[in-house]
Amino acid sequence: MATLEKEVAALPKHIAKIEKTLESHVRRLEVDRGALAANQRDRKKIDGDVQLHNQKISKLREQMAGAKTNEQYRAFQNEIDFIAKEIRKAEDRILELMTESESLDANVKKAEVALKEEKQAVEAEQKRARERTAADQAQLDQLRTERTAAAATLPKATSTTYERIKKKWGGVAIAEVESGRCSACQILLRPQYFQEIRRGDQLMTCETCGRFLFYNPPVQVEDAAKAL
């Protein structure tokens, strides 16, 4: 029962952990998508700026055709040259953004595929956890019923002692005697006390930790062979 209760309690934590990991991957994908969208916005803006620059150059050339003096002509030409440099800078930046965009787009597509697979895995794990929890709960209910029935057959003093020991040691109230020692606290039992436990005609507890003790006599090879 204790093992089942721990498993039932642990399953939601396990699911919460993998769901948290999934959420972090979703957020990372959103960041990548945001970076790709920002890249596209920057390219669009710079493209618009280049168009405006080209329009301005066209107007300047029209105005330059009507220049009356060399000074006016050179002034128009200088302004055209300056805008042309700005266009070249913008076009270089567009090329950089296009290169960055390829990497960002690849990352987004890769992350989308991985996230889809991860979501499917999480959903499958959630289903398994629900099924395992239901099975554990059904077994727990059955064991609790059996435990209640078994406890009802014990003397009240024994039940009270059992519950006290169980509470003290985190749910483990019984220990096996192995090689003359309590398997729980590993303290060596007194020889006479060990012999009394071996007889098995009364309930006995460890003199050190207080747990109920039981002894399973070793099985002889000859006896095991006869049983087969």
Keywords:
2 domains, mainly alpha, 228 residues, Helix Hairpins, three-stranded mixed β-sheet, rod-shaped, 4% strand
CATH class of the largest domain: Mainly Alpha
- Count of discrete alpha- or pi-helical segments spanning 4 or more residues: 5
- How many strands, what sense, and barrel or not for the largest sheet? 3 strands, mixed
The level of helicity is over 70%
Number of strands: 3
CATH topology of the largest domain: Helix Hairpins
For the residues shown, what is the average pLDDT?
Answer: 91
Strand ordering within the main sheet: 2-1-3
Shape: rod-shaped
CA-based gyration radius: 41 Å
Query: β content, as a range?
Result: under 5%
| Helix/strand order, N-terminal first | HHHEEHEH
Instruction: Quickly give the structural class.
Output: mainly alpha
So, CATH architecture of the largest domain? Answer: Orthogonal Bundle
- Residue ranges: pLDDT <50 for 5 or more in a row? none
| Tally of individual domains | 2
Distance between the termini: 32 Å
